[in-house]
Automatic annotation (TrEMBL):
Protein name, entry field: Lanthionine synthetase C family protein
Organism classification: Eukaryota, Fungi, Dikarya, Basidiomycota, Agaricomycotina
Gene Ontology biological-process entries: carbohydrate metabolic process; peptide modification
Origin species: Calocera viscosa (strain TUFC12733)
InterPro entries per UniProt: 6hp_glycosidase-like_sf (IPR012341), LANC-like (IPR007822)
UniProt: Zn(2+) binding residues: 337, 397-398
Length: 515
């Protein structure tokens, strides 16, 4: 279903590419990344706001982008002048969370449950918006970045306590929340914590270091306990458990229901990526198969099939039922929070991570499901291409760079299967080149005009122009993933997705880092 035409501009971008365009794109993306790091470094906020421990809506989220760049530096070919400044810049952004200015972070680490629950409790324990996020980023920083800094041991202990308390909070739903299937959403709830736990587990499993201090940290029994199979399984079971209850309440109201369903923080049956069923399913699909398999065919995939049935012309509504009324905004949007971007990521993960059988006898039902999945994904991508140049601008949550990510997933699938003439690659790269010309970066670009016929700017400057979900930091993550993909393809790397990380704090390619 189409969105309000005032929210986007007509897409006249050219998705065609050749070797020269690919090389030019690589140079453009590399330049945008360097410019962005410099801009973020020059515009750090020194006020008390910098101490608010929320990756989604505060400055500390910029550390996610810079730490991702540090992890990808070799594959990106980052200049040493940029790579060398990243460790100190990452630490400087995280520092305010560990000072006395940040009461919330210290309260989250408190052993007094009443104090802790004021800031870290069920429904406020996700990685995006609670102190859990900066805690995970700090532990990741200490594991990935060589050397140590003064106070690292104290910061590690504080962060570990926040994670332990966040894990406990995931199981503290009130009877009403439990029975309604409330608040496991990606932004605020258990699904957001699960993303971080799986990412930390992947980091620990793949960590290679000769640094004895980091080896000791990686073997920390309390940290290992938080991310072991049993703990991840408990989180998954809790999400499924509340989803079954939520499905029962949904059935009472509408007479039918998918196997699992949840309500968001507005107590609506949201369907999108940030608040809704799409985001929860996206995280569940990226849980290691050995853990998720008991719930896959009976709960997760049938709910995904139900979600695809809600799709109309490539888009999904903000919430069920589509006819509303809808709280918080229009029923139909084209962004990650609500609309086609979340389903684009979900269907991409479905195809990349859970391939259907390809050998021997394939039942007709599986053939039909595969056809329907691919049809829905193609319609979703076509819709994003048509209405994805959002006038809100550059951001990943409700902007052009975030809307390009589903194309990168399809391109990764195409290139992995030997298809070097990928329409999705052309579309994604065209959108990302175009975005480099938007504020606050404002690089020269020749893709399409950045002004409206009346001379007004087509795209607005974000309210928080450097933040992770609303500004430049998130865009850097997408530009970097695209450049890694292009560099891998140019070098003939067998795994063309190697080094890519996915949509920040959401993934899509499998959760590879807690970033």
């Amino acid at each position: 279903m189409s969105t309000d035409p005032l929210r986007y501009i007509e897409n006249n971008l050219n998705p065609v590419y050749d070797a020269a365009i690919i090389e030019s794109t690589r140079q453009t993306l590399a330049k945008a990344i360097v410019f962005s790091v410099n801009e973020i470094g020059k515009n750090l906020d020194a006020s008390d706001e910098a101490a608010v421990p929320s990756l989604y809506i505060q400055q500390v989220g910029e550390s996610v982008a810079l730490l991702r760049l540090y992890a990808q530096a070799d594959r990106l070919g980052l200049p040493n002048s940029i790579k060398d400044q990243l460790p100190s810049l990452i630490k400087a952004i995280l520092d305010p969370c560990f000072t006395d200015k940040c009461h919330d972070f210290h309260s989250a680490a408190s052993d007094d449950k009443e104090i802790r629950r004021k800031v870290l409790r069920f429904a406020t324990c996700g990685m995006m918006t609670s102190p859990v996020g900066p805690a995970i980023v700090e532990i990741t920083r200490q594991l990935l970045v060589p050397g140590t800094s003064d106070g690292d041991d104290e910061r590690f202990e504080l962060s570990l306590k926040v994670l332990e308390h966040g894990f406990a909070a995931c199981f503290e739903a009130s009877p009403e929340q439990d029975l309604q299937g409330d608040m496991v959403e990606l932004m605020w709830g258990t699904a957001g914590f699960l993303y971080g736990a799986i990412g930390l587990r992947a980091l620990l499993d793949d960590l290679h270091t000769d640094d004895t201090g980091k080896m000791w940290m990686a073997r920390n029994e309390r940290l290992r306990e938080l991310v072991c199979d049993d703990s991840i399984s408990k989180l998954v079971t809790e999400i499924i458990h509340t989803g079954v209850h939520g499905s029962g309440r949904f059935r009472e109201q509408y007479g039918h229901a998918p196997p699992i369903m949840w309500r968001d923080f507005r107590k609506t049956y949201a369907l999108g990526g940030i608040h809704g069923v799409t985001g929860v399913l996206l995280i569940l699909l990226q849980v290691p198969l050995r853990i998720i398999e008991p719930y896959l065919n009976g709960h997760i995939l049938p709910t995904l099939d139900w979600l695809m049935d809600q799709q109309s012309n490539g888009n999904i509504p903000r919430a069920y039922p589509a006819e509303g009324p809808h709280i918080g905004g229009p029923a139909w949007q084209c962004q990650f929070c609500h609309g086609a971007i979340g389903t684009g990521l979900l269907l991409g993960a479905y195809k990349l991570l859970l391939p259907f059988p390809t050998e021997g006898y394939i039942p007709r039902s599986i053939v039909q499901k595969r056809w329907n999945r691919d049809k829905c994904w193609n319609e979703c991508l076509d819709f994003i291409w048509k209405e994805g140049l959002l006038r809100k601008g550059i951001s990943i949550c409700h902007g052009v760079t975030g809307n390009a990510v589903p194309f990168l997933l399809q391109a990764a699938y195409d290139l992995s299967n030997g298809n070097t003439d990928s329409l999705s690659l052309g579309r994604g790269l065209a959108m990302l080149r175009y975005a480099t010309g938007m504020p606050p970066l404002n690089m020269d670009q020749s893709e399409q005009s950045l002004t409206l016929p009346n001379g007004e700017p087509a795209f607005r400057t974000p309210d928080h122009p450097y933040y992770l979900f609303q500004g430049l930091a998130g865009s850097v993550c997408v530009w970097a993933d695209a450049l890694v993909l292009l560099n891998n393809a140019a070098q003939g790397t067998q795994d063309v997705t190697g080094g890519m990380i996915g949509f920040p704090l959401s993934g899509g390619l499998g959760i590879r880092l807690p970033l």
